[in-house]
């Protein structure tokens, strides 16, 4: 018993089996096979390794963005001069990666709680019955008191009075000067897998440079200071339109880095996209154009609470950081090589098909490729065929079709062979 086990073990360890190959001297098969192998090689080297960089592993960054606006606006409405600085036109003021720059507004000053007439238009009435007391209109400004005012022919409401009249959007925009405001973006990214941190203030971008540079896609692609007019233009919109009704623009900071080369080549790339609406569409085609919101400043005057209401039209900027770093890694390399070797098997399969099924001398090659066992010794699995059989020839990949009972034969190649009958006289039709 022990010696049997040790024999089996020594057989296992000290023997090696390798498949026997058949060398076929045939130009057609040779050329087909080499062409396919060449194609597979080109795919693996050209596409998988060079183009898709299959030898690298990838990681995306965690990132943080700060922003800062600079610039001053000026308005002169019927002799009332006013200057708008950053604290007046940026919402919210913290320097988020998403913020709004006010470019146009409708201001309603000195509102206080009280009763006053609704706007004309949607809220017209001809009698008190049209203004049901205690109810609201969805588009109204307050709660209706049940009174239809004679002077204006509109319902009276309990609301912040006087109610805001936002029917007419100022044109040209009140703060056209926004075109010259500048936006400073600070962005830092970390690729945790590779332990690499970068900031958009890369090498050569120092204080002296920042103090005078302005982003330009060709002349200053790394300057982190952007003129709003340029951003809007690069996103494909017209500043006049977007400033009047508002809009949304995405600034994409793209960090696509190959960390196999020096880290100083890992630099950001800025692109600009309109996030709402299509620059090519006409304004009329859009159902709800623009971007606006309301904002109120409350104060006390003579112990009475009052507010200033601003309907703000502005450009909303969303800074989106997109990142992908790559670096050499042994595991994806081996995976790519392994799958490449596997695809080489395709060449073998195709060439075998050509050799065994298409060539005129296929019978000759078949005989050379397959070694037939002389099976006078009955295979127990093919019992069903045994009655009328003399020889049951089961060939790799062949199915012999005849009339007689069915038997299934499994071969080592894990291929299921179906041999309907094993009668040697009829059984040779393939
Ligand atoms: C923006 O700046 C340019 C150059 O300084 C100036 O010519 C232009 O009038 C400014 N535009 C606005 C709307 O202030």
UniProtKB/TrEMBL annotation:
ATP binds at residues 68-70, 182, 292-294, 311. GO terms for molecular function: ATP binding; extracellularly ATP-gated monoatomic cation channel activity; purinergic nucleotide receptor activity. Glycans are attached at residue 180. This is P2X purinoceptor. Disulfide bonds join 116-161, 125-148, 131-155, 213-223, 257-266. Keywords: ATP-binding, Cell membrane, Disulfide bond, Glycoprotein, Ion channel, Ion transport, Ligand-gated ion channel, Membrane, Nucleotide-binding, Receptor, Transmembrane, Transmembrane helix, Transport. It is a multi-pass membrane protein. Functional P2XRs are organized as homomeric and heteromeric trimers. Forms heterodimer with P2RX2. Forms heterodimer with P2RX4. Forms heterodimer with P2RX5. It holds the Pfam family P2X_receptor.
């Amino acid at each position: 018993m022990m010696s049997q086990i040790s024999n089996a073990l020594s057989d296992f360890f000290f023997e090696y089996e390798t498949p026997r190959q058949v060398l076929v001297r045939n130009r057609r098969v040779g050329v087909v096979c080499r062409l396919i192998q060449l194609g597979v090689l080109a795919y693996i080297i050209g596409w998988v390794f060079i183009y898709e960089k299959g030898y690298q592993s990838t990681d995306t960054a965690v990132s943080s963005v700060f922003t800062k606006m600079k610039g001053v606006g000026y308005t002169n409405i019927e002799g009332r001069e006013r200057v708008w600085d950053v604290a007046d036109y940026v919402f919210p003021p913290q320097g988020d990666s998403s913020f709004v720059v006010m470019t146009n507004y409708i201001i309603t000053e000195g509102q206080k709680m009280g009763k006053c007439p609704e706007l004309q238009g949607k809220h017209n009435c001809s009698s008190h019955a049209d203004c049901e007391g205690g109810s609201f209109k969805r588009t109204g400004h307050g709660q209706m008191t049940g009174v239809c005012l004679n002077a204006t022919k509109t319902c009276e409401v309990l609301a912040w009075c006087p109610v805001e009249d936002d029917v007419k959007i100022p044109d040209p925009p009140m703060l056209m000067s926004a075109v010259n405001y500048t936006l400073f973006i600070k962005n830092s990214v970390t690729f945790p897998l590779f332990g690499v941190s970068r900031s958009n203030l890369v090498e050569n971008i120092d204080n002296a440079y920042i103090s005078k540079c302005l982003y330009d896609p060709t002349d200053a692609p790394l300057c982190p200071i952007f003129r709003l007019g340029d951003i809007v233009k690069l996103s494909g919109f017209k500043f006049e339109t977007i400033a009047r009704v508002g809009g949304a623009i995405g600034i994409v900071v793209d960090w696509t880095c190959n960390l196999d080369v020096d880290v100083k080549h890992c630099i950001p790339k800025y692109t600009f996209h309109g996030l709402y609406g299509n620059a090519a569409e006409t304004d009329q085609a859009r159902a709800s154009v623009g971007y606006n919101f309301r904002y109120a400043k409350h104060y006390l005057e003579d112990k009475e609470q009052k507010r200033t209401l601003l309907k703000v039209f502005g450009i909303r900027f969303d800074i989106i950081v997109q990142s992908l770093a790559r670096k050499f890694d042994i595991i994806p390399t081996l995976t790519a090589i392994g799958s490449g070797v596997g695809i080489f098997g395709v060449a073998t399969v195709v060439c075998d098909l050509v050799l065994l099924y298409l060539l005129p001398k296929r019978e000759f090659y078949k005989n050379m490729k397959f070694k037939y066992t002389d099976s006078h010794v009955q295979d127990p699995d093919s019992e069903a065929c045994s009655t009328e059989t003399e020889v049951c020839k089961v060939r790799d990949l062949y199915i012999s079709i005849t009339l007689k009972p069915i038997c299934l034969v499994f071969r080592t190649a894990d291929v299921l062979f179906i041999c309907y009958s094993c009668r040697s006289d009829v059984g040779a039709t393939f």
